[in-house]
Amino acid sequence: MNTEELIALGQEVTMHTFNRQETVLVKGQGAYVEDLDGKKYIDFISGIACNVLGHADQEFVEYISKQAGNLIHVSNLFWNENGIKLAEKLSEVSNLDKTFFANSGTEANEAAIKLARKWGTEMKGPDAFEIISMNQSFHGRTLASLTATGQEDMHTAFKPLPVGFKYVDFNDINDLIAAVNNNTCAILLEVIQGEGGVNAITPEYVAAVNEIQKKEKVLVIVDEIQTGIGRTGTMFAFQQTSLKPDLITLAKGLGGGLPIGALVAKNHVASHFKPGDHGTTFGGNPLATAAGNYILSAIEKQHLLANVQEVSQYIINEIESWQSLAIKEIRGKGLLIGLKLTKSVGHVITKAAEQGLLITSAKDDVIRLLPPLNVSKLVVDEGLEKLKVALQA
Ligand SMILES: *Cc1c(COP(=O)(O)O)cnc(C)c1O
């Protein structure tokens, strides 16, 4: 089947939940991907911040292939070495204590919401199940994570939603202080709102969150699903702030493209989960956790955090020198870069694809650049040249 026929069939047999670019990708190498017609693209989406090492990294592929040849899945009725090792590593790099593995970001947040509720009702009282989240946040698509997502337009068609969620304006300290009460069990936030427009938390807001956490017996949950695993130049974005999360949630980059999610929590919170409180069939399976182990060790061995910081500055310097190209503001950190445009992003995305560059958007007329963490300046030069043409078109 050719591209046109495949897309026509796809429209017939899959639900129309995504507006996809009109291309069928078939293979990749590093920061490049190729479609069915043999057209090559630079991939500055990385499967939405998942492909930490780009495509078809030879050692990574060998590592997970070898694991697939031993065990793919055994269920959580048994222990497996890869899962134990990955949890140990996550404790070490996060300074938190215990991990629950899931298969996606939204599931990691569901686990966090359940754990926070159980902690709240056991530590504060039967009504202490309220979670405060931020307007313009994104936490996933399953019902509780969707409800935590502070975007009303995503809620409308799916009511009734679970109760116990409250929304405040991100970075508005008074709004937050007014929302906290005896029924609050947790504040849930992103350090940089990825889907919501690449909006960064302010130091003043961090200070206010810390103050509430200290005085009010309220948990702080940081959703690091997009910002974590090196994306912003440190292992986790909260490490560039003075936030002291009780829980963090991870997914996207953790599996380097394989589906995995994780909730990592302090002992005093984690201890509230008892056998039977939560579970998953696939979560933490030997293949996904092998991928996680490989990715975390590659970030260290290949000095990817330094690369992210250096290439990020390189990209920002270059884009700043462009002037008058419809860029109103440069946002984000590391290799999560947002470009707020004065014109429609849809058009720029289409033009970029024509040039052979894949980019995506975030809310609020923002172009989002998410190259792999091992991207080179050479590839960046090539990608930015294409972006420039797309912006001029
Ligand atoms: C992508 C994302 C999610 C949801 O992850 P899925 O794997 O798509 O369920 C949640 N929170 C943030 C911040 C994300 O970027």
Automatic annotation (TrEMBL):
It is an enzyme of class 2 (transferase). It is found in: Cytoplasm. The gene is argD. Its EC number is 2.6.1.11. Its cofactor is pyridoxal 5'-phosphate. Pathway: Amino-acid biosynthesis; L-arginine biosynthesis; N(2)-acetyl-L-ornithine from L-glutamate: step 4/4. It catalyses: N(2)-acetyl-L-ornithine + 2-oxoglutarate = N-acetyl-L-glutamate 5-semialdehyde + L-glutamate. The keyword Amino-acid biosynthesis applies. It comes from Aerococcus viridans. May also have succinyldiaminopimelate aminotransferase activity, thus carrying out the corresponding step in lysine biosynthesis. Pfam families: Aminotran_3 (PF00202). Homodimer. Belongs to the class-III pyridoxal-phosphate-dependent aminotransferase family. ArgD subfamily. N(2)-acetyl-L-ornithine binds at residues 141, 280. This is Acetylornithine aminotransferase. The modification N6-(pyridoxal phosphate)lysine is found at residue 252. GO terms for molecular function: identical protein binding; N2-acetyl-L-ornithine:2-oxoglutarate 5-aminotransferase activity; pyridoxal phosphate binding.
